[in-house]
């Protein structure tokens, strides 16, 4: 049985919030810590905002424990508006009150709980809750020093997750991450080894200290049966092309490994007949290249009109040159109500053009390059102080890539080719389990060609319907060719 307690290290009026519990990283003997009133516990459902003094000392806890589907392994992700501290506990004890109950030192079982604690100052793993901090030891963890921080921001919604492995080389491996459940978003990595008590961890408890922050609100608790070990690569290989080496070094993935939403989207666009040029318009891409450069063309005019769409820079009114952060969206079909906007979009990327850094509203997506090449830079989230991609991939004509709500969700597309246009087909969808659809993409505004910290919403709209675009461009192109035979 474990005592209620914490490693929280407050350096303001809430210091020693847990009475005689040591405050986090300090090392003085327990006897030197002044005794204060112990914390109180309540459920997330109870309202205590009208009692600031009580709120400052109240830890909210989930009424009932959740269970890991497979004992000793899995992922727990908590989407929450946190207070001043958050704990995610994996325990052998189902009753949260017993997990936090008072007991004397000789009753303490040192092997019944793994706790991830996150505060505004950082995060750490411990082997349980204890009234005496000299008893509980911190689990040593590797800190991934990147552009994302491992702390929480009181009152700001985010997803915090912990992953536990029990088999193979990863036995006893603990991961903590934020926002997306993937290895690239891992902020801390620890290993407690292959121990019998770790393999018996079954129950999940979530706690949050309100302190002087707004009341903590749990939006969602997700429990996955499999731990986070590696991320599937972003490129999809045809089943006839996937090799043993691809599987071994994780360089490509089969569509069979992806969510059924991605499988459905892939099946619709992966075929050889999904291409730009066909027998009825064999120089379609030539017409697009011409339209990008020809000031009288419908393409050039639309690009000019869209200049400044994603930029913090104010373009001239009317704009006199095309902004490099512009691209065209040519939609196919209708909005079916299961995607952010119309699910199939042909995007046209002139040479040297790029998108802003953006997310995709937690949607699933499959992207096929139809012509040219495109670079995709992947980012951990939109909250980084200085966005630095953790991975950059070049996709060429015929390549297919993907994303889902937890992987490759934030990226920037760039056509780095000096002269050639890139044409892609983007396909989006939501799963049947997603009851809330975010019909917008969030992006970082740019200024002087560089991302700022300011975000904005983009509604996935349409510049043309595909059949209209194709018909009008073909007529425009044929007319130009007829009048300019000498230039061809």
Automatic annotation (TrEMBL):
<protein>
    <recommendedName>
        <fullName>cysteine dioxygenase</fullName>
        <ecNumber>1.13.11.20</ecNumber>
    </recommendedName>
</protein>
<dbReference type="GO" id="GO:0005506">
    <property type="term" value="F:iron ion binding"/>
</dbReference>
<feature type="binding site">
    <location>
        <position position="358"/>
    </location>
    <ligand>
        <name>Fe cation</name>
    </ligand>
</feature>
<dbReference type="Pfam" id="PF05995">
    <property type="entry name" value="CDO_I"/>
</dbReference>
<dbReference type="InterPro" id="IPR011051">
    <property type="entry name" value="RmlC_Cupin_sf"/>
</dbReference>
<comment type="similarity">
    <text>Belongs to the cysteine dioxygenase family.</text>
</comment>
<dbReference type="InterPro" id="IPR014710">
    <property type="entry name" value="RmlC-like_jellyroll"/>
</dbReference>
<feature type="binding site">
    <location>
        <position position="360"/>
    </location>
    <ligand>
        <name>Fe cation</name>
    </ligand>
</feature>
<feature type="binding site">
    <location>
        <position position="411"/>
    </location>
    <ligand>
        <name>Fe cation</name>
    </ligand>
</feature>
<dbReference type="InterPro" id="IPR010300">
    <property type="entry name" value="CDO_1"/>
</dbReference>
<dbReference type="GO" id="GO:0017172">
    <property type="term" value="F:cysteine dioxygenase activity"/>
</dbReference>
<keyword id="KW-0408">Iron</keyword>
<keyword id="KW-0479">Metal-binding</keyword>
């Amino acid at each position: 049985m474990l005592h209620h307690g914490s490693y929280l290290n407050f350096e303001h009026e809430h210091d020693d919030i847990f009475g005689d519990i040591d405050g986090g990283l300090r090392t003085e003997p327990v006897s030197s810590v002044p005794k204060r009133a112990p914390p109180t516990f309540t459920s997330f459902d109870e309202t205590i905002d009208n009692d600031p003094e009580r709120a400052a000392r109240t830890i909210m806890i989930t009424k009932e424990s959740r269970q890991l589907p497979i004992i000793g392994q899995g992922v727990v992700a908590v989407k929450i508006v946190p207070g001043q501290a958050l704990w995610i506990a994996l325990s052998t004890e189902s009753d949260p009150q017993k997990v936090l109950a008072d007991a004397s030192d000789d009753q303490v079982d040192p092997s019944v709980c793994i706790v991830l604690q996150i505060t505004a100052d950082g995060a750490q793993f411990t082997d349980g809750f204890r009234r005496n901090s000299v008893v509980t030891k911190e689990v040593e963890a590797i800190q991934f020093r990147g552009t994302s921080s491992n702390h929480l921001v009181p009152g700001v919604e985010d997803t915090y997750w912990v992953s536990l492995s029990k088999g193979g080389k990863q036995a006893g491996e603990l991961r903590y991450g934020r926002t997306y459940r993937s290895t690239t978003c891992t902020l801390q990595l620890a290993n407690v080894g292959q121990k019998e008590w770790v393999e018996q961890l079954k129950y999940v408890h979530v706690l949050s200290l309100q302190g002087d922050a707004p009341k903590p609100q749990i939006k969602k608790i997700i429990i996955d049966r499999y731990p986070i070990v590696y991320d599937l690569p972003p490129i999809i290989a045809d089943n006839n092309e996937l090799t043993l080496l691809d599987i071994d070094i994780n360089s490509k993935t089969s569509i069979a490994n992806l969510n059924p939403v991605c499988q459905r989207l892939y099946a619709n666009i992966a075929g050889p007949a999904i291409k730009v040029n066909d027998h009825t318009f064999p120089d379609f891409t030539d017409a697009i290249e011409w339209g990008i450069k020809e000031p009288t063309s419908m393409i050039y005019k639309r690009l000019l009109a869209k200049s400044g769409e994603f930029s913090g820079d104010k373009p001239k009114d009317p704009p006199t040159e095309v902004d490099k952060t512009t691209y065209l969206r040519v939609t196919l079909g209708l909005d079916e109500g299961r995607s952010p906007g119309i699910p199939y979009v042909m995007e046209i990327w002139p040479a040297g053009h790029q998108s802003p850094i953006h997310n995709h509203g937690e949607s699933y997506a499959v992207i096929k390059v139809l012509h040219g090449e495109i670079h995709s830079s992947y980012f951990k989230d939109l909250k980084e102080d200085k966005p630095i991609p953790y991975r950059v991939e070049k996709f060429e004509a015929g390549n297919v890539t993907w994303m889902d709500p937890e992987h490759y969700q934030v990226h920037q597309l760039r056509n780095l080719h000096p002269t050639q246009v890139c044409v892609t087909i983007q396909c989006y969808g939501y799963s049947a389990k997603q009851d809330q659809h975010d019909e917008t993409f969030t992006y970082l505004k740019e200024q002087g060609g560089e991302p700022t910290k300011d975000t904005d919403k983009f509604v996935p709209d349409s510049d043309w319907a595909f059949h209209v675009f194709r018909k009008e461009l073909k007529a425009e192109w044929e007319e130009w060719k007829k009048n300019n035979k000498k230039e061809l």
